[in-house]
From TrEMBL:
Signal peptide: none annotated. Pfam families: Radical_SAM. The keyword Metal-binding applies. The keyword Zinc-finger does not apply. Its cofactor is [4Fe-4S] cluster. This is Radical SAM protein. Keywords: 4Fe-4S, Iron, Iron-sulfur, Metal-binding, S-adenosyl-L-methionine. It comes from the Bacteria. The lineage of its organism: Bacteria, Bacillati, Bacillota, Clostridia, Eubacteriales. It comes from Clostridium botulinum.
Length: 408
């Protein structure tokens, strides 16, 4: 199997962690493999992808754990090895890491900056909310460790984003926690629910209220500076477009490499031999991947396919999250279904407000999507509810001239 597009390699460096977060799905995995990767596995993993990838392609490498910075020397070894091996094929490597920040110091920070890492720092908001779930093995909070990482990143002028996990005990503070982070000067916040919490129906109203408040907050801050909140912005594109819901490219374009060189389609099933689809020495077993789909994909389940939100919905794409929750790749649980319906309503209102305010970024997105649907007309088209935004695009009351805008 040769790769000739953008591919993603997730290197699972270690199962060890210096925290014991209450919502950590990895902590509940029964792993029968080595706790940490060694240099030889790192090198073989890199060789595997370089050999299989055509020149002038792109590979995204995410260093994962556990806490990946517990194996900082391995990360340095990997980057040095790539620089040495890649000189002939001219593959573009892009690096990413998600860290709790506890181990960040000047040396690590400058290394990440030099090698242009996409850095995600896990923080759940203010001290109270963060320390509810993100604690050390001794039960102490980890908030000040994360704050120290922010301090170092700012001192070294290093770009980073914050990854916030929403749990049942923090959802009611969502808007306040995002405001807290924005007031710290953080401009890029990525928000994700903990899908494995026990989300009862009573949380639906809390979610709706908090997301609506979050959208108001987003619009207020957007007036004065450029901010990104992915759970809002990331949904705008899917609100504007429609099409057939498709599972992600796990196992075909994205691969997770375990500590002993095993290959898996997704981090949610790492260490589970049912989903082992090869090794870095044997390669990807496409037959095994197809067998997994045959076994865990229910072709008789059409609720998502027939739903008007299927293209918008996370549940129609994240197959292995679905599997962990329902045992079926293409069947989300009721929480995901309700959550996405709430997000659709909030996104619809947000797009309307951005449109009425003649938001430049929305206009640019619509322009690019007009081209996209022309190229991929078999797979994506303009959502019925969004057609007015495309039809009125060229009737903007703003006319740009010489870098200025004037109303007409």
């Amino acid at each position: 199997m040769n790769f000739n597009r953008i591919y993603e390699m997730q290197l699972f460096l270690t199962y060890n962690c210096n925290l014991q977060c209450k919502y950590c799905y990895e902590a509940n995995c029964k792993i029968n493999y080595k706790k940490s990767m060694d240099k030889e596995i790192i090198y073989k993993s890199i060789d595997f992808f370089i050999e299989k990838t055509k020149s002038n392609s792109e590979i995204h490498i995410t260093f994962m754990g556990g806490e990946p910075l517990l194996e900082f020397e391995l990360i340095k070894n990997a980057v040095e090895y790539i620089n040495k091996k890649n000189s002939k094929k001219n593959i573009t490597f892009k690096y990413a890491i998600t860290t709790n920040g506890i181990l960040i110091d000047s040396e690590i920070a400058l290394f990440l900056k030099k090698n242009k890492f996409d850095i995600s720092l896990s923080i759940d908001g203010n001290k109270y909310s963060h320390d509810l779930n993100r604690r050390t093995k001794n039960g102490n909070g980890s908030f000040y460790g994360a704050m120290n990482a922010i301090k170092i990143f700012k001192e070294k002028e290093i770009d980073f984003n914050v990854r916030m996990t929403i749990a049942t005990n923090t959802i009611k503070y969502l808007k306040d926690n995002v405001k807290y982070l924005l007031d710290l000067g953080i401009n890029n916040i990525r928000i994700s629910p903990d899908y494995f919490n026990k989300w009862e129906d009573e949380f639906n109203n809390v979610y709706k209220l908090q997301y609506k408040e979050l959208a108001k907050l987003y619009m207020d801050y957007k007036k004065v500076r450029n901010i990104k909140i992915d759970i809002l912005e990331g949904k705008i594109r899917n609100f504007l477009l429609d099409g057939k819901g498709l599972l992600c490219n796990a196992g075909y374009g994205k691969f997770v490499i375990g500590t002993e060189g095993e290959l898996y389609p997704c981090t949610f099933v790492i260490g589970d031999d049912k989903f082992k689809i090869g090794t870095i020495e044997e390669g990807v077993n496409i037959s095994k991947m197809n067998l997994i789909l045959d076994k865990y994909y229910d072709s008789n389940y059409n609720d998502c396919y027939n739903c008007k939100l299927s293209y918008f919905c996370q549940g129609s794409k994240c197959g292995y999250v679905n599997y962990k929750l329902t045992g079926v790749l293409n069947k989300p649980n009721s929480f995901i279904c309700n959550h996405e319906k709430i997000l659709y309503e909030v996104t619809s209102e947000l797009v309307e407000e951005l449109y009425l305010k003649e938001d430049k970024e929305l206009k640019e997105l619509i322009e690019s999507l007009k081209v996209y649907v022309q190229v991929f007309e078999k797979y994506a088209f303009i959502r019925e509810e969004a057609k007015k935004y495309f039809e009125n695009l060229n009737k903007s009351v703003y006319i740009e001239k010489d870098g200025c805008s004037s109303k007409h």
